[in-house]
Design brief:
Blueprint (H helix, E strand, L loop, with lengths): L8 H8 L73 E6 H11 L3 E4 L6 H12 L11 E4 L3 H13 L4 E5 L1 H6 L1 H9 L5 E6 L14 H4 L7 E4 L3 H18 L3 E6 L7 E6 L2 H8 L2 H12 L19 H6 L2 H5 L1 H16 L6 E5 L5 E5 L3 H14 L4 E6 L1 E3 L3 H7 L6 E6 L10 H16 L7 E7 L8 H12 L6 E4 L28 E8 L4 H15 L3 E8 L7 E9 L12 E6 L4 H4 L6 E10 L5 H7 L2 H10 L2 E5 L1 H7 L7 H12 L4 H16 L4 H14 L4 E3 L18 H6 L3 H12 L32 E5 L9 H5 L5 E6 L14 E2 L9 E6 L9 H5 L5 E5 H17 L12 H4 L18 H11 L3 E5 L3 H7 L16 E3 L6 H28 L9 H12 L4 H18 L4 H8 L8 E7 H7 L1 H10 L4 E6 L34 H6 L5 E5 L5 H13 L4 E6 L14 H10 L6 E3 L12 E3 L8 H5 L3 H9 L1 H26 ...
Parallel strand pairs: 2-3, 2-4, 4-5, 5-7, 6-7, 10-11, 10-13, 13-14, 14-15, 16-19, 19-20, 20-21, 28-29, 28-30, 30-31, 31-33, 32-33
Antiparallel strand pairs: 1-8, 6-12, 8-17, 9-11, 16-18, 17-18, 21-22, 23-27, 24-26, 25-26, 32-34, 34-35
């Protein structure tokens, strides 16, 4: 935060006399009587001219010396290389992130990292390489430090640069925006640096993790040069250009490429070896530039000051002093490109034209989309059209003369495509830059022909951009009145700005090189399909002469969602930055996809199709497949193969993981490699990929490979399938009945999106604010479980624990009166309900097989063996019918106390069927929260796992009760969730205070001026007296609704109450997020909320890792656990967030484990919500990232062991308790320790990895942890007995909070 100062005349004169260290190459001159400050280095520092002027022979000797007269400045030893020999470039398959990380690691001293998709992989790689001891071109191991946020990473980056290090980092989207203040500082100080950005959409009306240029365009004003790579190969090469150019110019560089489309595309590239990089850096220009950077560093042996405060007398001049650096930056980039071209044989230019030399129409574009345009250009030129594409690589600084020179003189029409949207502007950034350049050129030279220019948007959030879209842009230029501000690739039926489909390049026409073989693999999230295909493409690229490309698309579910792998290989270079359009080979790894998705829309007629199915004969398959699918198969006539891959996987010990089975089938049918060689290579890749998981996992995968081919069957498609009649779609679908007022959204938006048809939706069907109605997950019915639980009534004791632990609310108890069961299905058995208040009712446990994910938690949790897992196909029809009936039964929520374990599960869960992983440890907490307080719940949710499984459009798992009440949920950002939630709570309190005042004003008004009914007066009186007590206020609020509706026109004052009637209900505000938010990026805000004293609740879902971004270390990660960003095991202990919160003395704090102690978590939530101040609940959440050896079904046993060994203590600290001899604020709910903490560690791969890799290190760390666990438990026992240790403050009174 900058400090604003009032400058006195005296202090202003002091600033004016300061010697400025502005590094301008040519010193200013004295003119007249004005005093001019020279661009000299600070006293004691080395004299060094600007890098662009460097010649080794010109470097003056250092001016700083010690008492002995020798220099205090250490010389820089440039990388040395042996005499250069011709080097054959190494070809390797990798994605854009890895291609970039190789260069960044090679030329950097330090890196400060923080996870953010899709840039995280670069940070993971440099951390891994550093942990392995890999050296860079300077012979050093890079220092890699994970920070608490992107703000912290940028600050540390700035500091490392100020210390003279060569530093870098990796980020995108909101993370890049958090770096803006430091970006200004780094640029202002003319510091060489490269920031690698996987350009990504910004969170606006919604969050999107996918790629476009919104983030990089939001920082174009920061003073950084901006270099754009258009492909995976360019990401590798231009990363080096950026690092070289920043040294040449002293201008920091943003090197960016398209998130996902380039960052996650695997392609065959030619790598630049370290010896070539060393040879480049040994040139005098770079050796001197690095020396210049080092000698400018903060160092007490040659001190100077930087970051001063300047006044209006000099700030402007100093800002302008940097102009020469930017003026010459273009030429320095060109030189760096020439050097990289000389080393690689690949030529690059800041502005590069491709197309007809006499082109009349040109598209100007940045990023991966240029490759699609180039394909379109080649296609159109072959048809006789005069077109071209101008690829922009250097966006800042912009060199107008060079840009104009790159455009053929024959061009008369220009279309500029931006991958961003700048609402309210006259055009997007690239368009404005191009338009300004063309217009200024025409003003300078009136003889130049006028060029017609239009601008448009494409590809936001990785929206597909095909060669046909580029053709549509060229066709728009040919129109009589071209659209000047258009979009392409969507249907905009609101503002009518979208371009129509291309005529010159119709669907089905390929622009790919001849011989390109395309493949599609339909998989399920977490089934290993994506990982297997990554290995397959690497095997092909590394062991054949074929070029290879792979890209992977996902839906929004955490696991169990749809993944589609797009693979291409062929004899020519593949540069197609779009999804496979016509697959020669298609594998569908889950048979249910055949009915749910249009899987064959991209299958080439006569191609190969492999279906993983339990129906492995054509007769059984015919009964299963929908008529529509059979007709499509008959029309396409593919070579059809069937395999029961699930059976093969189970027989080989892999459970549901069919990926290696299907991959073996692919190599067998594709013929890309001799089968014997393919199997050997596949097994080798398996050993490498799964070695972290242990030899047993490797052996099981090898067995699956050996068993796969014998299970494959080729079948003929019956000719009569093509003659079947397709049934007419029902005009009044069941969803209309199920969803009520949500029907329009569900039918027009949700259903197409869930069927992966969202690309076809027009603009008009969407809410511009991004709002989504509640309860849309009810229609998903994914049926992803292989086995589902079935109730055994004879064993059931009606404890409801199965429902309590279910992560997806897919199993529930039902209470019914005998009359309710009159129309029950014959299979809907029920038993007499047990318990107080349940006399005369019937009881049943019912599962929804379509919504169950098959995690088996319920069967493991059941103490009575009352659930039995059965194959889903054997029970799907029967149990679905039973579920539909059970769903219509009345909810008897008042029969038992909802604050008991059993009673809580008789409440309707208002969070159901989320997109969380099977066995998720987070969702049971939030589901329970909705059962306790759901009808009055407001949730501020931090970005993370809980915002993705809880808020990925169109799937909203938060639903409503019969009255239409339910959780109101919102996500702001990652870092600000605590403040966001505090703002919600404060705003709500303020509005209710105003309403309370208005009610009192109505009640105190004379009856003759406010003639309200007695019923209304009585209800308002009761509400006014108890407005802050939800048990009373919310009941009265319901009574008031019809009364206010009836009497709203009696007086304006009553009308005001009617207009504010939604605030009669007292809400419960909860701030929810994961440990990455609470312990790291959002801790500052969370700490402020803890200190605020407001009546707000905080729920931390602690998976002890950044589970949403792939498992990176957080401050919640325990010592010795191996995680991404902690490849060598975490060396520091876990942060004790509970102790920090308890130190305030007036914050309710509870540490809970739902799986370990059901009653304790219910009690903690109830106490926390009742407490009239800040409450903090720390919730242990087992995660798939922990690598529990027996799977997530054992999370209950694992959680109990974590509690029993003291690894995760259970306690409650309640400041509302009055301390005396028998009552203490601190309650230790873990009564005693038992078991060995090492036994816990032996079950989880996150600890086992270090034991296998460095057993002595792991042993030492585990001993330290065991000792600290016992020490902490002894401390807690002391606190529980009333001993000292926690600050005590007076508990806030409820009324004071209002």
């Amino acid at each position: 935060m900058e400090t604003t100062m009032k400058m006195t005349s005296a202090s202003s004169k002091v600033v004016g006399r300061q010697v400025l260290r502005s590094m301008v190459p040519n010193p200013s001159r004295v003119t007249g009587k004005r005093v001019v400050v020279y661009a000299a280095p600070p006293e004691g520092a080395a004299t060094a001219p600007a890098p662009s002027d460097f010649k080794s022979s010109d470097i003056p000797p250092p001016v700083a010396s010690n008492a002995q007269g020798t220099s205090n400045i250490l010389p820089f030893n440039a990388p040395t290389t042996a005499a250069s020999k011709p080097v054959t470039p190494k070809k390797a398959p990798m994605d854009g992130n890895e291609a970039t990380a190789h260069i960044a690691y090679a030329v950097s001293d330090v890196s400060f990292i923080y996870p953010i998709t899709p840039a995280t992989v670069m940070g993971e790689l440099v951390d891994q390489w550093a942990a392995e001891g890999r050296t860079n071109v300077f012979g050093n191991v890079m220092s890699v430090t994970e920070m608490e946020s992107e703000t912290g990473a940028a600050g540390a980056l700035h500091g490392a640069l100020a210390a003279g290090s060569l530093a870098t980092t990796f980020t995108c989207s909101q993370g890049l925006l958090l770096m803006v203040p430091n970006m200004y500082k780094i640029a202002g100080e003319l510091t060489p640096c490269v920031l690698h950005v996987t350009a990504r959409a910004l969170a606006k009306h919604a969050l999107s993790i996918f790629g476009d240029h919104q983030d990089v365009m939001a920082v174009r004003q920061c003073g950084w040069a901006m270099l754009c790579s258009h492909s995976v190969q360019e990401a590798h090469d231009l990363a080096l250009v950026a690092h070289l150019a920043t040294l040449r110019t002293s201008v920091p560089f943003v090197h960016f490429f398209d998130g996902f489309r380039t960052s996650h595309e695997i392609n065959t590239i030619e790598m630049i070896d370290n010896s070539s990089i060393k040879e480049l850096l040994s040139k005098p220009v770079y050796a001197d530039a690095i020396r210049h950077h080092r000698t400018r560093a903060l160092n007490p042996t040659h001190p100077h000051q930087r970051g001063t405060a300047q006044g209006p007398d000099v700030y402007f001049q100093c800002a302008e002093a940097a102009n020469p650096f930017y003026d010459r930056a273009y030429e320095q980039v060109v030189e760096a490109m020439k050097e990289v071209s000389a080393a690689t044989g690949r030529s690059y230019k800041p502005y590069e034209y491709a197309g007809a030399p006499d082109a009349e129409k040109v598209i100007v574009i940045m990023g991966s989309g240029s490759q699609a345009v180039e394909e379109a250009v080649e296609y159109l030129i072959a048809k006789g059209h005069k077109v071209g594409v101008l690829k922009v690589r250097l966006f800042r600084p912009w060199k107008q003369e060079a840009f104009l020179e790159a455009i053929p003189a024959s061009v008369r029409k220009v279309a500029v495509l931006d991958r961003t949207k700048e609402s309210g502007s006259s055009g997007e950034p690239l368009y404005q830059q191009v338009a300004a350049s063309l217009h200024e050129a025409e003003l300078v030279d009136p003889l130049l022909p006028r060029r017609y220019i239009v601008g448009g948007r494409f590809g936001l959030a990785s929206k597909e951009f095909l060669p046909s879209h580029a053709v549509a842009v060229f066709e728009n230029l040919d129109a009589e009145k071209p659209l000047r501000d258009f979009s392409v690739g969507i249907v905009d039926d609101v503002s009518r700005r979208s371009l129509p489909a291309a005529r010159l390049l119709p669907p089905g026409v390929s622009t790919l090189p001849d011989g390109t073989f395309e493949c599609l693999f339909w998989g399920m999230g977490s089934d290993g399909t994506v990982g297997a295909n990554k290995e397959a493409i690497k095997i092909i690229a590394s062991n054949t002469n074929l070029s290879a490309q792979a890209y992977f698309s996902y839906d929004a579910h955490k696991s169990g969602g749809v993944t589609v792998s797009h693979l291409r290989f062929g004899p020519s270079k593949i540069r197609a930055p779009y999804l496979v359009q016509q697959a020669d080979y298609m594998a569908v790894n889950h048979q249910s996809y055949m009915a749910k998705y249009d899987t064959m829309a991209c299958l080439k007629p006569g191609g190969v199709m492999v279906l993983n199915t339990t129906f492995t004969t054509i007769e059984s398959l015919s009964k299963y497949l929908p008529t529509k699918v059979k007709k499509e198969l008959a029309a396409l006539k593919p070579e059809l193969y069937l395999i029961d891959a699930l059976k093969v996987a189970k027989d080989s010990g892999l459970g549901k993981h069919v990926n290696m089975v299907m991959q073996t089938v692919f190599f067998n049918l594709s013929g890309v490699l001799p089968m014997e060689k393919a199997i050997a290579l596949l097994k080798k890749s398996i050993s490498k990929a799964y070695e972290r998981k242990g030899p047993e996992v490797v052996a099981k995968n090898h067995a699956a490979v050996d068993m796969a081919i014998s299970a494959l069957k080729h079948v003929e498609i019956p000719a009569d399938w093509g003659e079947l009649d397709t049934p007419v779609v029902h005009p009044n679908p069941p969803a209309k009945v199920l969803a009520g007022s949500r029907w329009e959204f569900i039918e027009k938006v949700a259903r197409p999106m869930l069927a992966l048809e969202g690309d076809k939706l027009p603009v008009s069907v969407f809410s511009p604010e991004g709002f989504v109605p509640p309860g849309t997950t009810v229609i998903e019915k994914r049926a992803i479980a292989a086995q589902v639980p079935v109730w055994k009534s004879e064993n059931c004791t009606q404890c409801n624990i199965c429902a309590f632990v279910c992560p997806h609310a897919a199993i529930r108890p039902s209470l019914a009166a005998p009359a309710d069961l009159a129309d029950a299905p014959a299979t809907f058995g029920a038993i007499n309900a047990k318990g107080p208040g349940l006399q005369g009712l019937k009881y049943r446990i019912q599962v929804s097989p379509y919504d169950c994910t098959g995690c088996d938690l319920c069967t493991h949790a059941c103490p009575d063996n009352a659930l039995e897992s059965k194959p889903i196909n054997s029970v799907l029809e029967v149990e679905s019918t039973n579920w539909d009936f059970a769903s219509k039964l009345p909810v008897r929520s008042q029969q038992m106390d909802r604050t008991s374990v059993k009673g809580s599960q008789l409440q309707q869960p208002l969070m159901e069927f989320s997109g969380a992983c099977e066995g998720c440890g987070e969702t049971p907490y939030v589901k329970l929260l909705t059962q306790l307080f759901g009808d009055r719940l407001i949730i501020a949710n931090a970005t993370g796992c809980s915002s993705i499984w809880g808020g990925s459009a169109p799937s909203n798992p938060y639903t409503t009760n019969a009255d239409g009440y339910g959780p109101a949920w919102a996500n702001s950002l990652f870092e600000d969730n605590a403040q966001f939630g505090l703002g919600i709570a404060t705003g709500t309190i303020q509005r209710r205070k105003a309403l309370h005042r208005h009610v009192k004003e109505v009640l105190s008004a004379p009856a003759e001026t406010t003639p309200i009914s007695g019923a209304l007066r009585d209800a308002l009186t009761r509400w006014s007296e108890h407005f802050d007590e939800p048990e009373v206020a919310n009941v009265v609020a319901k009574e008031l609704q019809p009364l206010l509706e009836r009497e709203k026109d009696v007086t304006p004052a009553v009308g005001v109450l009617h207009g504010e009637r939604d605030m009669l209900h007292k809400p419960s505000t909860w701030i929810v997020g994961g440990d990455g938010w609470a312990y790291d990026i959002g801790f500052g805000g969370l700490d402020h909320v803890l200190a605020s004293g407001e009546n707000v609740n905080i729920l931390v879902l602690d998976t002890e890792v950044y589970s949403n971004t792939g498992g990176q270390r957080s401050k919640a990660t325990p010592m010795s656990a191996v995680a991404k960003f902690a490849a060598g095991g975490k060396e520091r202990p876990k942060k004790d967030l509970g102790a920090i919160a308890m130190s305030y003395g007036d914050v309710y704090v509870a540490s809970t484990s739902l799986h370990a102690n059901y009653g304790q978590v219910v009690k903690a939530m109830t106490e926390a919500e009742k407490y009239p101040g800040v409450s903090l609940l720390l919730c242990y959440a087992p995660c798939i990232m922990h690598g529990i050896s027996s799977g997530m079904c054992s999370a209950i046993d694992e959680s109990k062991m974590a509690v029993e060994t003291g690894y995760w203590p259970l306690y409650r600290y309640n400041p509302a308790v009055k301390e005396d001899a028998s009552h203490h604020r601190f309650q230790l709910d873990s009564k005693k320790l038992k078991g060995d903490i090492n036994e816990l560690f032996s079950h989880e791969n996150r600890f086992q990895i270090l034991e296998r890799k460095a057993p002595e290190v792991a042993k030492h760390m585990h001993e330290v942890m065991d000792e600290s666990v016992h020490e902490r438990f002894d401390k807690f026992k002391n606190l529980a007995s009333g001993g000292p240790g926690i600050a005590v403050h007076e508990t806030p009174k409820p009324q004071e909070q209002q």
